[in-house]
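Let us work through a complete example step by step.
Step 1: write down the sequence.
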Amino acid sequence: MSMKIDIKKYGKYLFLAGMGGLGFLLFYLAAVAWCSMLWARDSALFYLEEPISVEEALKISEQNQKIAELWRQGGSEQGVPLNFCIWGQKENITVSNEELSRAVSTDVIFLCGNPELLFEESRIPVQEDDQGCLISEDAAWELFGSSQVIGKEVLCQGKSYIIRNVIPAKEKILAFQAGSLIQRSQELSAEGEEKPSVDSVFQRITVQKPEGSSLRELQMIWVSQYGLNPQGLDTELLRGISGILLLVIPVTVCIFFWIFLYCQYKAQETLQQKAVMAGLSLVLAALLIFFLGKWVRIPDEYIPTLWSDFSFWSQLWKDKLEGVRLLIRIPKGIPDSKWMDGFWRAAGYSLLAEAVAVLGITGGRRKNFD
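Step 2: predict the structure and record it as tokens.
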């Protein structure tokens, strides 16, 4: 005895189930991507229009260490200690493994400060380590045929480096502290050879935000303490935009449910049935308000100090627009992929999920399928 399924009869429910499953998957992927941007609350990124030299970066770091030491002793009038990393990147630098006679073209990242701010769980090489380096998994496989390479040596621009850690990146990367460049320059000067120039690459600063500090406040610290005027990169704005796109999805679903409940309310004949529909609408509204109140946070910089200050909003729009333009035009380094990938995945999946939700709900209202 065979049983036939009436596709026309059950097609609507199959369509709704399929679109609902796809929409939920896209919403989940968008939420995961958005959560990967939570680091933007704890880190601040800056860009230097005029790059600084290795010597200047090291001088700033030494000054910061002195301020930190004075703070540990009970405070300092010289400034506030910061946890930061000044860095830059050069592309297509040859790195070789002399033992296996292998070489690979990599992107070299020069560090001055805490490498963990750029590469998670990579506290080494510390700033005083002028012999250590970080290498990506992809570059390690190219040079050694394995990712178990901690302690092995590589050669870059005539200097040998000991691998301290392997970072999980698909790009070919080598990273080391700027102090090694000073040592190499001294060696080349003693030999009468020309030293490699890397002065033009120190254009970026990543700072761990002290609790309660804003991007603008950190910028003023750099101006007052170190004489630099870096431009803040508003990655928190990108996180906010992707968060809004993510919230649109549950709001859209709620709107369609309200429309459905309203139609049911009008169709009911008894007062009790209408009361049930009205009660469900109020419960749905309460749940949405609770959800938005729990997850939506408005930064203080978006709130005017005086409600009569109408110029606040125009200036805020101008500042945020300029911030987006800056994010677009700056030269991107490999560490920037953390916020770029997170934003584009969160925004893209959110828009797709929204489209699927609208298509599924509007398409599901059709009584028959062709």
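Step 3: interpret the result. Residues 235-267 form the longest helix (33 residues).
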